[in-house]
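Section 3.1 - Work completed
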Amino acid sequence: MTTPQRRDLVILGGGLVGMTLALAAARQGITSHVIDKALPEELTAEGVDARASAISTASWNLFANIGLGAALEPLGCAIEAIAVTDAMRPGRIDFKPQPHEGTLGRMFANRDIRLALFEAARAEPAIAWSSGVEPVRRTRGDHGVEVELSDGRTVAGSLLVGAEGRQSPTRAEAGLSSARWDYHHRAMVTAITHEKSHEGVAWEIFYPSGPLALLPLLDLPDGRHRSAVVWTVDEKDAKGVIALPDAVFTGEIAQRMGHTFGAIELCAPRMSYPLNFHHAPRIVENRLALIGDAAHGMHPIAGQGLNLGLRDVGVLVEVLADGMRLGLEPGDAQVLARYERWRALDATTVMATTDAIVRLFGMPGKTASAVRRLGMAGVQRSGWLKKFFMDEARGMSGDLPTLLRA
């Protein structure tokens, strides 16, 4: 029996966060073996994933710092401003940075990010990549980790990283519990073309039944204006909304957005998924670290889910590189403790704030709406509050790891 080649990291999950970790680690001379049950051609096929992600300024810095800037730059649409409104009534908040502050982020199709990551990973000798296989055994011991794959091979390393998403079997097997609840909402995700330009404005329109987000995308080659849509509906209404013909579905969206963009049409498949909350207070165990949705999953209301996972990546790579320069193994308990401490405040704050916004704007009734709009008017008039919220949206607050700085 041959001894498996040992890598620094064994990363379970080759999605956006897991593969970004592998590439960011490689740029620091840290080797990894990425394992994913899906084949890359399945994940990047046209029409498989209609989702788009708002990439914060800090997350863009990460992509640029690991060499993806040139590939992604022409594919992203700048978020020049954010408009937040309570059912399109008066009293909205407009977030628009000063010219010297740059944009509030960029919108990318998830497929485009995956293609750039996969192409870079294939060219990186520090990354081994097994797709179309699943772990059948995970072993974490005093001297390293081993993962037996469904094709009979065994992969070895110093640190196991769980990046499989919200239903992470690695987290469950390690006994790392999480606070969790169901919002009883479902997100309807698609993209639309529209008559009027979005002018780089991202809209967050709140209704008691759930928010509607309109997120700017690049115009299509034929010049048609385009936006991503995330429409949140009550779970009890979801089956009916899913069954709506396309024309009726777009009519409902147009009504909720106050016909702001003029005539609209669908230009991407319609997808839906349930919304829930989970947050693991502990994200490390013996030779194990959790990142991304394996550690914390939230409502998409503020578009921070992927960005939170990318901040996990930036911090984990920095503590690993620092520890290895001191002669410590990637799986050393001191290294993992530093990762957990560094991520604790940011993750808890973002998760709690997002949950509070969901509950605040989900309260029905005219009185609740009036109170919300009064508070929003106060934020609109307050320069420092708007600056605080914009810095949070851009991911530029708090103690940032080097990879997330410009």
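Second construct:
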Amino acid sequence: MTINRREFLKTSGVGLAGLFVLPETIHPSSPIGQDGYGILYDANLCIGCRNCESACKNRRDIPAEFEQELDADNWTIIKLYQDQENTQIYSFIKRNCMHCVDPACVSACPVGAMKKTADGPVIYDETICIGCRYCMAACPFDIPKYEWEKVFPRVQKCDMCADRIAEGKDTACVESCKIGALQFGKRSDLLIEAHARIDNDPANYINKVYGENEVGGTSVLIVSKVPAEKLGLPVLSSSSLPSLTWPWMKAVPGVAFVVASLMTFLYWLTGRKLKVEVVEEIKNDSH
């Protein structure tokens, strides 16, 4: 089968460009990023009852068996921190997806299977996921988990009850918390509440709202009397990961175009050389 230069340009240039589809991200200053819904977790009020874990599983019709680490079935867990030198110093900590304002998992997904919704949750579309697991590698909180044991595995993580939020309801975990350790609302309102708690009781809260600035901000906010690093939370900069990688990612289409153009030129040059050789051979045969 022969192919002309125009057809080659279509298949190489356009084809290569199609491989590099830059994911859509939400800038931290956008209304979606800053004032979607979120959850405030007060570790000082948490008693470790694990009602939130049960509610999360009940919503998904999964038996309420408690685990110590996040996995494909366990989207939220309650862990206990206890000081090794002074056992009187302890705190519970709730771990689940932080639903970043500018999510690295969304930025890393080449097919858009991860999305940040206008309401705040970061959700996952299993119907278009290709199983690359880039979202798992990109997440600074090590949240997305894979169904390794299944024939057709999916990426699994907390979706902040996006379906319930769309219906005007609180998340299942917040609804199940009867002591007020969890609060649902607009992120901006939750930040005001978090700082008010710290200001009103500085002896029992460290002066920090975890998630306010980490990686550009998260929709899940945490206040406690124990530093975040001791609770197993990563120490992160205030720059969102997509904002750091975007200058490199936006160069990809340009690189793809240059490569496609070079391949087209090489094809043309090789074809022209072959054509000249054929013409010369025909001339020689005629003589």
